[in-house]
Amino acid sequence: MYAGPSTPNAPIILPICTICLRQHRHTMPVIQFPVRRTWDDKYNTHCKRINKAIHTRNSGITLCSLWQCECGCHEKHNHMHRCSGCGATTHGASKCPRAQNVTTTNTI
Fold this sequence. Notes:
Number of strands: 3
Radius of gyration: 14 Å
Strand content: 5-15%
Strand order of the largest sheet: 1-2-3
Number of domains: 1
Largest sheet: 3 strands, antiparallel
Helix content: under 10%
Shape: globular
């Protein structure tokens, strides 16, 4: 998982995990450890990883990975543009209300 810029005074903001919506690093890759609950244990995960792709748990639909990022995706495959955290079409995992709040780890 990318941890952000490596300059000493730059804040490090970790990306949100597209499966459990957790901000902090996992102890092992989600691909090897099937996460079934969100970071706060409030919800069942909406998706799972299969061969590095994001698939919905119930229907197996492949979701767009770029859509989950802060920058989003501009490709014309809207059927793949669903939040991997809750299934909404209005946002990706990085903007999901279920996601752990993004905070900086370096407060200088």
